[in-house]
Amino acid sequence: MRPLQLLALGVLCVASSGSLLVPKGGRIAFASKQDGTWNIHVIDPDGSHEARLTAGPADDRFPVWSPDGRMIAFGSWRGAGWELRVMQADGSESTRLAGDIVAKDPRAWSPDGSRIVFSATGDGNPELYTIRPDGSGLTRLTDDPADDRSPAWSPDGRTIAFASSRTGHREVFLMPAGGGSPTQLTHDSASADTPVWSPDGERLAFMSARSGRREIDVMDRRGEHRVRLAAETAADFELPHWSADGAWIAFRAKRGDNYDVEVVPADGGMPTRLTSGAGYDGSPTWSPDASRLAFISDRDGWDALYVIAPAGGQPTRLTAHPTLDPNWSR
């Protein structure tokens, strides 16, 4: 096992505020369990300069980088529900923002890094909120007895896509980033959820079950020109992730008891399976230059972090301890 190393100031640049800047090529944040609890770590994509950012009795998971790489939002279990917290990229200044969050639900920073959108259950069902990273300005965006969740902030900062069950099952909606009446984009006979914006903000990838099985669809921001990208009998597709150039979407596919990482052209085409071994391969996240994917695999007997080229090949293992929730900085 590679010993944990302190962040080397000779390798990483230091901002005037004291925050560490993400080096060229980005860093990967993830959750690691080494002493009975989950904590947030970061690592360079070549496996060097691993650093543990959180410590203590809490379980800390689900890290999400701010757009400038100076901060990380994450979920923290402290005995009374999951909290939303933020910290500097070096692990300092950990701050509680909100409680009762839906921990495994996506949350997103606004493009300018001034706010975070998340779902929370303080009123008994998931609703959407935004908050500033200093803990001020908590704003409730939705107020409906149905579940509102899976928020995604548009690249221009003006709109939030989300999934809501207010029609009887989940559909994809858009709403102004400051709140207001939502617009329904999908009108399916079964659930449509987990919308993810293309980098140019013109399209949305999302999960759909309208064919009777899980599939990945793409549509424009008006809900038109819908294309099915990945659908296959007995396949369960989840976690779509756009590459930074907008050309590819990575996802986890399930066939029988096997999970694999695949990529598909965002304009349509045949998916390419990047992993094919028995067991679990999933949670893909793209590098900022779209040249690599980080993912989780249990091929060596435990969940570890790996990196692979989008053309496939032999992956490189980065961690030697239980690892989940990878998120590659921009």
How would you summarize what this structure contains?
The chain is mostly beta strands and 330 residues long. It is built from no helices and 28 strands. Helix content is 0%, strand content 43%.
Order of helices and strands: EEEEEEEEEEEEEEEEEEEEEEEEEEEE
CATH architectural category: 6 Propeller
CATH superfamily, called what? TolB, C-terminal domain
CATH class: Mainly Beta
What's the arrangement of strands in the largest beta sheet?
3-2-1-28
Segments where pLDDT lies below 50 for 5+ residues? 1-20
- The averaged pLDDT comes out at 90
The biggest sheet, with number of strands, parallel, antiparallel or mixed sense and barrel status, is: 4 strands, antiparallel
Q: Which structural class do you get from the secondary structure elements? A: mainly beta
Query: What fold name goes in the CATH topology slot?
Result: Neuraminidase
Radius of gyration: 19 Å
* Silhouette: globular
Supply the number of helical segments: 0
Q: Helix share of residues?
A: under 10%
Query: How far do the termini sit from each other?
Result: 27 Å
Question: How much strand content do the residues show?
Answer: 35-45%
The total domain count is: 1
